[in-house]
Amino acid sequence: MADLRINLAGIEAPNPFWLASAPPTNTGYQVQRAFEAGWGGAVWKTLGDPIINTSSRFAAVHFNGQRVAGFNNIELITDRPLEVNLKEIYETKKKFPKHALVVSLMVEPKREKWHEIVKRVEAIGVDGLELNFGCPHGMAERGMGAASGQQPDLVEMQTMWVKEVAQTPVIVKLTPNITDITVVARHAVSGGADAISLINTINSLAGVDIHSWNTIPHVGGKGSHGGYCGPAVKPIALNMVAECARDMHVGVPISGIGGISNWQDAVEFMLMGAAGVQICTAAMHHGFRIVEEMIDGLNNYLDDKGISSVRDIVGKSVERYSNWGDLDLNYRVVARIDQETCINCNKCHIACEDTSHQCIDMLTNADGKQVLEVREEDCVGCNLCSIVCPVDGAIEMVELPGIQPPMTWNDRQRAIEKLNAASSEMEVV
Amino acid sequence: MEHSRVIGLLSPERLTANFAEAQPGLTRKAAMEESNRCLYCYDAPCITACPTGINIPSFIKRIATDNLKGAATTIMDSNPVGASCARVCPTEELCEGACVLNGASKPIMIGMLQRYATDWAIQSGQQLFAPGPSNAKKVAVIGGGPAGLSAARELAREGFSVVIYEAKPMAGGLDTHGIVSFRLPQTVSLWEVEQVEKLGVEIKTGVKVGVDVSAKQLIEDYDAVVLAAGMGYVPSIGLEGEELAGVYDAIQLVERTKLHEPSIALLGAKVAVIGAGNTAIDAATCSVRLGAEQVKMVYRRTRDEMTAYDFEYEFAKQEGVEFSWLTAPKRIIGDSNGKVTHLECVQMQLSDKAGADGRAIPIPIEGSEFLMPVDAVVLAIGQKRHVGLIESIGLKHDRGVVIIDEATRRTSHPKVYAAGDIVFGSGKGDAMVVSAAEQGKQTAYAISRHFAATSSEAI
């Protein structure tokens, strides 16, 4: 049994699986059920001035018969009085002292407002605070959430105000609805953030009903953009986490969020620098019990790899994430088809023929059997065939020995500059 | 006494229930899951395996994308009897057998998806096809079964004026009359007939060519004639006692259950079915559902040689049909009232010698005769050929199998084309509904090509 405990900027938890600040963490009843189910931590649904929610709030994107490839919501922060939330937070923490209980906060960008709420929340005993600078809908129209999260100086200033009074670690939750997330991350750190969490949801319209022509979801025939999350956003989130993780000016622990649906996703985020993860959609899709499969899978993975603590995988892939200009242009892979495993669906052929480099031939072998063969000399190693292949192991991308020594684009440009410099010196001479 | 037992009819309610379609169609959820499982192969082997060449990945993708009209159109475009074929095709030997997922996981339920899409078409009442602009040519089609309907529909879409001459009161042939309702409800076949009629094809039912109108007359009156008369009832095998009361023709037995007339009384009966082909299976399961107490299939060879498909065999077993392998009938014995009481059989063994079809020849085991007590004997040992009709037109044939030129689909008479069971002979492929449909289509295209060529010559 591997050690699954984590420590995120001083916040300890029995495992890295936390519920994100969202509908699942709305009440004490829910968070206590979650802790009973095995969740290592929870970020309480954002506290602030209670709002009024609409009816009809969620929508999802289904893909080829699979439910909830992506999830969209227009629900806002808590709609319950602060006193009620504080009472339940107190009771929950008392019942589950070892679980991480972080409270998400969002108030107007005013110093005294932040001071007041931080003091009131910390007074009842919590493990940390998460500043919600990410909610992209509704609250943003009132100058909060993503609206302040999209202004780096405002993020920095508000973080600073919080840090003036906060006794517990402060996590700043970032919005992805911005050009370069590292800019905001750096400002959060300048403001004194102990950690960052990302990503919040992405501006989205889940769909349009092609029969009624209404938006999905709609509120009495009208819709507005929501926040997108769930499995479909994972690659976007993973990139943003990785970009922050490899930015030396950020340099604080990261709580990874965005489409994490299983233990493998969690491992990926942690390898890319997340000290822990936050999850919402998977719980909303399957209930809190889904964490049991995550914990078990992660534990077996670590045991199989001979890794004693989950903390040991954090950031292990970060140095492998780089700029395009640092990639070796002379690295070569080609597709190779295993005739034994191939089921002859010909999807690789048509994908390559129509949309890539026309190097998979449909042939008939001596026995009259249809075979697919890669003309390796024409294969650029794009991976498309292995992506569309429905059978594991039928197409392998095989590494070929480089014909030339490794050279990146940046190496190449430097070499050319050097040559140019040398030749102009020659000319001078 | 054996024959004092009362053999009767099930109540109309029980009969209706017993002859309602046995297998439920896919639910929407099941259809979506299954259609999404399809890989949408390129140059898919299932298309090649379908005698009518239905673009299967395309129709399945259309189901998956909520375009059932498109799915049904794709199916019916290639196969004018695609709704019937969805139910009666031996899919594991055709499309599903060719599915690349065999071995990798499990093949796509193509037949069931085809049924899902065509059921939608039947229920929606939408017309999927339109006749082509008239080319002022007239074609007579003799026989309104799968081959004749296919030929007629494609001819109508090519602009021909088409009249089908159908001997029975309803068109659809085998699909309407010869396949048990619990596998293929008659409404499905009649919908296919209706689709052809909606293209302006006239179907003259109850008109028997050679009796009510001469074939010569048709050849004179039309620009071309398609002979698609199929085959007839079960021939005599010269068994002693065939004339006894309680001896039935398998095709007529099935047909009676599909017509609005009282079915053959088999409630409580012990039934022996002679044969082991597709029709024999249908007759056996039909007997079970008519209330027979015991149904035995009597076959002189073994399970390995029987021509019924595996799924038919499995279905028959599930229905409670028993199989007497290596058993040949010798004679049918009746009582003083001329009613069947026993079937005398002899045990057989397979010899080392193979017959012309490559199957081992069974030979009787001497002294192994025994009496099987029965109330009814159903003969299912093939179908009669329409030799009289064929010869009345003067067509070349090989023991009732009309000889055609594969390329032109023409018989020895320049104005007469032929398709379907009437041109199927041993060694010429299975007489499947789907093959008949394809032959009908190809015959229509051949006729169309012929007249296109002659009209361009005229210019």
From TrEMBL, chain A:
Pfam hit, one: Fer4_21
Presence of the UniProt keyword Transcription regulation in the record: no
Entry keywords, A to Z: Flavoprotein, FMN, Iron, Iron-sulfur, Metal-binding, Oxidoreductase
EC code: 1.3.1.1, 1.3.98.1
Known pathway: Pyrimidine metabolism; UMP biosynthesis via de novo pathway
Keyword Metal-binding: yes
Role of this protein: Involved in pyrimidine base degradation. Catalyzes physiologically the reduction of uracil to 5,6-dihydrouracil (DHU) by using NADH as a specific cosubstrate. It also catalyzes the reverse reaction and the reduction of thymine to 5,6-dihydrothymine (DHT).
Family of this protein: Belongs to the dihydroorotate dehydrogenase family. Type 1 subfamily.
Descriptive protein name: Dihydrothymine dehydrogenase
Originating species: Paenibacillus abyssi
TrEMBL record, chain B:
The 4Fe-4S ferredoxin-type domain, residue ranges: 28-62
Coiled-coil regions, chain positions: none
Pfam family, one: Fer4_20
GO molecular function: iron-sulfur cluster binding; oxidoreductase activity
Protein name, as recorded: Glutamate synthase (NADPH), homotetrameric
